[in-house]
Structures are given as structure tokens and as C-alpha cells.
Amino acid sequence: MKNLFKKYFQSVITPNEFDQLTDFINQKKNEPAIHRFMDDEWQRQSQETFSEKQNPLLLQKIKHTILNEELSRSLQRAKYYSLGLKIAAVLMVGLVIANVWLYRGQEPGDEKQLVQTVSVPNGAKTEFELPDGSTVWLNAGTTISYAANFEKNRTVELRGEAFFDVVKSKNTFSVETKSGSVAVLGTAFNVQAYEEGEFTTTLERGRVEILNKKGTKLGILEPGDQVQLVDDQFVKDQVDTRIYTSWKDGKLIFVRETFPVAMRRLERWFNVDIQYSSDDFEGPWFSGTFENETISEAMDIICKTASVTYSYNSKKRIIKISALKK
Predict the structure, then answer these.
(1) Which residue, 223, 240, 259, 278, has most beta carbons within 10 Å?
(2) What whole-number distance in Å separates Cα of residue 104 and Cα of residue 100?
């Protein structure tokens, strides 16, 4: 296994070897062996060593570096991870060096300055476990960040959409966005907060507290509740949570969606650019469910249920939609 780590850093690891390395790292029982290898590697790259307390933080960074490569791997397969992995390996070395300087002369309490970031591109989704044991699903076009000492500081910064299944703890779990935040102790809920300025939280079980961007408490959600923040206004409804959480199970559900909202969701889901004239499409527009369809199959279905036609440039991944003349 030590040889696989070396291959990883040298950018000559094959896909099968990469799978073996990922499986090994994801097993908690292997962490002592990983730490031993890390000590050898750090000493090779620097005369300074890392304490036992610092090693787990760096291990988390390695895990999430490899997680991001797993996402890239699903989009692009090759015999050798030449350019992409070479860049990742260079970044990893830079990361290690940055941590050497960050740790030097600092007290243990300063470890909270280390931040983990996980990003998912359009056209992809992923599921992984946070350091406290909570599970998170990231939808397409989503980025989350959190402190390396997450078990003490359970705060996640979110841009995009994510579903959280939070383990109970005495420490509050918080999801912060540009428009508002959610605070919980143990629960399961969905947060949608893409850069379009939206903030929607849907509660599957447990209880959550909603706060605006200034930290003012706005209200409590019970299971089945959904809240939207519009200009700091708290709008709450009872909904079928499956409609808003099924994306993590591979289903894209529309219920009387307006055209712009539906098109943004399709763009992220299929990683395409959809072009149209906004004057042609107003009001509630489309209801339906997509699960295993390609973008072409999805657009064919839309054309059958609405008065539209489209063209698709598969090389540029551009779709142009036109309303049929009445």
C-alpha cells in the first residue's frame, strides 16, 4: 500500500490502483498505517515532523483531495491519470508545505484555521461522510467548506444544494449560506442556496432553526415544513419532502416549475447551457420526473408536453429552445 501512495504522489497510478488506494483510505482501521506513511513522506519533503495531533487533520485533507479526484474520475477515465493527477499531486505537495508553515509556532487551538473544501461540478453528484459521522449529499454545481476541527466546530458553508443527515451531538450543527443559515443538533434536511440568491430549506425529520444572514432567529421547522427566505421574509409551507430531496437518489422532479427555474435545474443536472427568449415563457410551465434519461431524451419529453422545439449542439453542449408559433 505504501507503494500506491508513492505512485499517487508521482502521478503514475492506474485507475485500478487508485480504487485500491481509495478503499484503503476509507477504512478507519487503516489510519495508523496511513499516519506512519505520512510521517515518512513529510520527513522526506521537510526536516520538520508533524505531531500525532496534526496528522489526523492532514489525513482529512488527503481524504478530500482523493474524494475530489473520484468525482473527476467519473467524468473522465484514462489509462493513466496523467495531466489531472499530476496537477493534483502538485497541489497536494503545496498543501503539505502550506500546512508546515501554518502549524509552525501555533497553539493547538489555532487548528480551526485549516479549512476543507469539496466541490461538485455540473452534471455530477456525490455522497460522503463528514468528520463527525454526519452524511452529506452534494447536488450538481455545489461547494461546501468546513473547518478541519469539525467535530468541535460543526459549521458548514454552502453554495449550491445539499442534503444533510446529521448525527446527534452536544455541539450545534450549522449550515451557513449567503442568504441565511440553519442550526440543528441531529436531523435530516435539504438546503438549496445557489448563487441566484435563493434560500430554501426542507425538513425531513427532527427540528431545525432558521436564521437570516444577520443571525436573527426567524423560526422553527417541523418535519414536512419548507421555508423560503425572500428579502429576509420567512415564508413557510407544508410540502411533500420527496419532491425536494429525491435528487440525492437520482431523480429530478418538477412540480409546476416556472421556465427559468426548470431550465437552471436542467443545466446543472445535465451540465449543459440552455438558451431561450424569456419573453416566450411565463408562469407555471412544467411538471414531470426524470431519472435515467439523457438530456436529449429529457428534451424530447418536454417537447411532447409543451409547445416548444429545440436544437442541441452536443459538442458545445448548447441547447436552444424556441416556442412553437400559435
Answers:
(1) 259
(2) 6
168 and 270: one domain?
no
> Does one domain contain both 72 and 129?
no
Q: How far apart are CA 264 and CA 195, in angstroms?
A: 11
What nine digits make up the cell of 123? 452534471
Contacts of 265 (CB under 8 A, 6+ apart): 252, 254, 257
Q: Write out pLDDT tens, residues 155-208.
A: 999 999 999 999 998 889 999 999 899 999 789 999 999 876 679 999 999 999
Identify whether the C-beta of residue 271 lies closer than 8 Å to the C-beta of residue 317: yes
CA distance 1 to 21: 7
In which domain, by residue range, is 156 found? Answer: 114-245
Q: Please give the Cα distance from 204 to 220 (Å, whole number).
A: 13
Average pLDDT over residues 93-109: 36
Could you tell me the pTM of the whole model? 0.67
The answer on 192 and 128 residing in a single domain is yes
294: phi then psi, degrees, rounded to nearest 5: -80, 170
DSSP conformation class of 278:
G
Q: Are residues 173 and 288 both part of a single domain?
A: no
- Domain final position from 245, 267, 290: 245
Task: Provide the residue count of the chain.
Answer: 326
Residue where a domain terminates, one of 92, 113, 134: 113
The percent of residues above 70 in pLDDT, for the chain, comes to 67
In the block, which residue shows the cell 520527513?
43
pLDDT of residue 137: 96
